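User: Could you go from structure to sequence for me? I need the amino acid at each position, not a summary. Structure tokens:
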């Protein structure tokens, strides 16, 4: 997010990214295993990316989490199971976009969050592994996330999900992707409404295949999100009471140069990159929002600016600040999450319950 014109070869960025990915995978994987006692039921599915010029088959991984069953085969795995069980068995759906600066992480990072959504909402949770930078810079991760939402909504019954009760959540970079995805969907919806043809092209050239419905989202959960790329890293760090709380510069530099390399010719105010400063007509279309910020996070200020904007527009927004904590406070270290993590997740899903009533 720095406005610096510094340059680093992609091969160098990729080597650094792979090293960070290995370290992050070990840390988060260990925490998730210990905290869940290794007893979490999930299955994996690969789906297509259907938007943009980098469309691809089986490009996006979905980690699908359900209530534990007494048999080895979950109900959503059995042929025609949903038709047999009926619509009354459909549950709320939660799509989760992981954090990691658009460079590291996977859809299995937020197992504890998924577990709590199952416990509190009875949800089916889906963690999305969108394609990562530097191999896949902006706007590919946004397009992957929109594709995942469209796929889930249009195949909701297959997953045991009530499509009218679909919530989208994101951590850090994933919060950016959750909000920007809704903006893209709103643009697609506007274009389809005014278009004569069934196949719709948005201002970014996105086309929804004929027969696909544009999703309606019940609410957005944004956890320490990145919302404004027009503000430099230097300015974001200077907003902290103690700059030592900021993420390491080596990490943020890797994230920024990987996701938004200087050769890209996009405006930093593009609503897909800086969704917190999107035009009012897109913000007005947002569903209820639940926000979490951390007191010692360089992203806190832009998060609070967005909360303030929503409140002034009369939008439904609920927020909380985690006092004394830095960015990613719910991720390792330590190996076991802090008590505040469980409390905040519980608060978030209490808010989400109201959306579903």
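Assistant: Here is the amino acid at each position, in order:
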């Amino acid at each position: 997010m720095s406005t610096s014109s510094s340059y680093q070869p992609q091969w160098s960025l990729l080597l650094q990214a792979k090293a960070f990915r290995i370290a992050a995978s070990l840390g988060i994987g260990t925490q998730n295993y210990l905290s869940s006692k290794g007893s979490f039921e999930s299955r994996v599915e690969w789906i297509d990316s259907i938007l943009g010029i980098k469309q691809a088959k089986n490009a996006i991984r979905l980690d699908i989490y359900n209530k534990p069953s007494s048999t080895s085969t979950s109900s959503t795995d059995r042929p025609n199971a949903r038709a047999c069980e009926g619509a009354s068995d459909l549950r709320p759906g939660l799509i989760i976009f992981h954090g990691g600066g658009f460079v590291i992480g996977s859809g299995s990072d937020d197992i504890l969050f998924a577990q709590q959504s199952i416990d509190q909402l009875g949800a089916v949770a889906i963690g999305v592994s969108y394609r990562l930078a530097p191999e896949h810079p902006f706007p590919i991760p946004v397009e992957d996330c929109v594709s995942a939402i469209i796929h889930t909504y249009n195949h909701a019954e297959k997953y045991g999900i009530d499509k009218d009760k679909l919530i989208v959540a994101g951590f850090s970079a994933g919060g950016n992707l959750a909000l920007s995805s809704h903006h893209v969907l709103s643009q697609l919806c506007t274009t389809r409404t005014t278009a004569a043809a069934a196949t719709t092209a948005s201002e970014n050239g996105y086309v929804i295949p004929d027969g696909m419905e544009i999703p309606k989202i019940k609410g957005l959960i944004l956890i320490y999100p990145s919302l404004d790329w027009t503000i430099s890293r230097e300015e974001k760090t200077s907003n902290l009471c103690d700059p030592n709380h900021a993420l390491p510069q080596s990490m943020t530099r890797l994230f920024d140069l990987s996701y938004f390399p200087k050769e890209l010719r996009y405006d930093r105010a593009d609503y897909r990159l800086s969704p917190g400063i999107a035009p009012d007509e897109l913000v007005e279309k947002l569903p209820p929002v639940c926000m979490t910020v951390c007191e010692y996070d360089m992203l806190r200020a832009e998060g609070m600016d967005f909360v303030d904007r929503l409140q002034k527009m009369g939008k439904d927004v609920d927020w909380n600040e985690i006092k004394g904590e830095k960015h990613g406070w719910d991720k390792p270290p330590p190996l076991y999450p802090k008590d505040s993590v469980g409390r905040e997740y519980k608060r978030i899903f209490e808010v989400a319950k109201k959306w579903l009533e």
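One structural detail worth keeping in mind: The beta strands are 42-49, 56-65, 91-97, 124-129, 161-171, 200-201, 207-208, 219-223, 289-296, 317-326.
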